[in-house]
Amino acid sequence: MRADLRTPALGLVAWAAALLVLGLPHWLCGGLLGLGLLAVLARRQRRLPVRTQVGWLVAGAAVAASALLHVESVGVTPVRDLAADRAAVQGTLVVRSDPVLGRGRTRFVHFRAVLEDLTARGRRVRLRTPVVVIADPRWADLRLGTRLRVSGRLDRSTGPELAAVLIARGPPTVVASPGPLLAAVDHVRAGIRRAVAPQPPGPRALVPALVDGDDGGLADDLAADFRTAGLTHLLAVSGTNLTLIVGFLLVMARWCGVRAYGLVAVGVIGVVGFVLLARTEPSVLRAAVMGSVALLGLGPRGRERGARALGVAVLVLLLVDPWLARSAGFALSVCATAGILVLAPPWRDALGHWLPRWAAEAVAVPLAAQLACTPLVAAISGQVSLVAVGANLAVAWAVGPATVLGLVGGVLAVAWAPLGQVVAAPAGWSAAWIIAVARTSAALPVAAIGWTADWASVALLTLLCGAAALVLADVLARRGLVVGFCGVLVVATLVPLPTPGWPPRGWVLVACDIGQGDGLVLNLGGHSAVVVDTGPDPHLMDLCLDRLGVRVVPIVVITHFHADHVDGLAGVLSGRRVGQIETSPVADPAGGSRLVESIARRAGVPVRAVTYGETTTIGPLRWQVLGPVRTEYPDSDSPPNDASVVMLVDVRGVRLLLMGDEERPSQADLRRTTTGLRADVLKVAHHGSSKQDADLVEGLGARLAVISVGVDNDYGHPAPSTLQLLRDARMQVRRTDLDGDVAVVVDEEGRLRSASRMPRVRPVPGGRTSGTGHVP
Fold this sequence. Notes:
It is a multi-pass membrane protein. This protein has 776 residues and is an alpha+beta fold. The protein is built from 27 helices and 25 strands. Strand 3 and strand 4 (123-135) form a beta hairpin. The longest helix has 28 residues, at 388-415.
């Protein structure tokens, strides 16, 4: 029997209409919709009734009209004009998301809000406009639904769905607190945190993320491991959360004798309660709807009813919030749900020829969701996970207890914390297992493979996934083929693939592609190297050293103690002999200094602070410490940055100046105290920030500039002004965000050149991805 795809097609038409309006000029959208109407009226197919075509057209027109209204409601307001002028304003707003601590040199929080009235330039306007508010940490305790009186300055918005960014001044002035319902939800969320408070840091942060999406306490390196292992969906509010929680409520209701419409009422109450608990944001509404579709798919005639519900759900969500059409989370939810509804049943039946039904379903569901999402995940992250299905299988039994018991423990903790902690203890144990699976999976030598994110590569991957979807049912029915394929996959993840030509012959320095941070490796030969800074992620730093074949590290230099330079230290020590750690003489920030001391103490590695002017010779390397010149920088915007260790390295006739994160005060000191400073290669200070001493950079005479920087970082690094400065100084520029691992090479004839390895993550559009180049 052929599947009825008319309703799913309705959702696709609505999605296309929203993208058309939000991505193209309005006059062009109207013209295309008009042409579509003519085409529908002109073409009458027997196999596709006219009423179906008209229904598609009406749905597309409705979503397009909704999108136009949303665009106009944001764009045609006084707020946009005031934001363009960076005007000072006063107003009243309602908090629509929890304040989140932002990353930067100064502490701040940001959250979404609806601006209800605005006073600027002597005029008051009543409106309802979405904005993002940036404020100091005193605003961190604001609760959802709070009405505030605020003053500050408007700036241009970060996205088309927002009218402006409001930079608030002073403390918040509360006009009205949230209503009793939202206050009760806040008590439950706080109860969940209290229930897992006695647990270790990992489970203590993961359980709230599983229950209600509260992932604020999750460490960055753990979140990166979840991404690599294909478990990111557990950290965000998704349909899985709703399915588990509402499914638990329905089971309990049946156990209590509730039947028929009573179960429907329990399900509706569960969905509404979940939305309130996880916050009434677009992503939560999307997750609730997709979770409800998944629940329908689990019932009788689930494949047919679920497919119809999915099409209607897409239409309704886009009518309510057309901006979801441009959301990666929305696309991933739709793809995963469609994969589970369409692909999982035949694959489960095929596996059922030689596996118990429960095992066949446990394999088929994550496999279908992963295959359906693979092209989109590759386009977003620039990688394809090889361990995602296995990791999801390994954690499947633990997700339910961690989520359900975490919620029950949180509710009980509202009344009596000790009781809630007892009930939530198994949730913590389950979360610990999930973390162990994520860590272990991400640490495999080939947990993921890089995949270029350009349209041709993503199209090729889509075709490959489509072909796999067509043949997998036949393959899964044959035990021998499945076992053989799994064996090949295990070998592929455990045995690192060779990288032809890497590291290049004659390399003297490699800037590792470890994200937003510094991780530099100086070659000593014989699988030995000096490491300067270790980046923010131990796993990525470990992988870079593995690619270079480094097994012995006589010295690790920590230029300063910010997280993007020290948090990867454990990755350097993993499986390698490390002789000594040398650090900046300024132990600031104290948390980074304590981390280095703790890791070194556990590994039995001595730590010492460098002194200004000291020299070190080891193998072919000789370097002098040129900074920090002072230990105090009262005029600095970031004293730890200005206290960075600066090294002038001589190796094979080439001089490399490694600048740490120095800013203008310390760079000016360096220029004044080191007369006649020259270098062939410059490791640009502070990831290419705008705070460069132009006289110092131009006076070096360097031929090659290396910038260690993360893709799409929050700081805007490297700054356009710095790139122009380097070009004006006639330096070739290589960047880890565009080029991946960047190597400085001195060939047998003493000529300097650069080389790079395919980047680990998605490159900036239009950027280079690999290659070599001779330095002029």
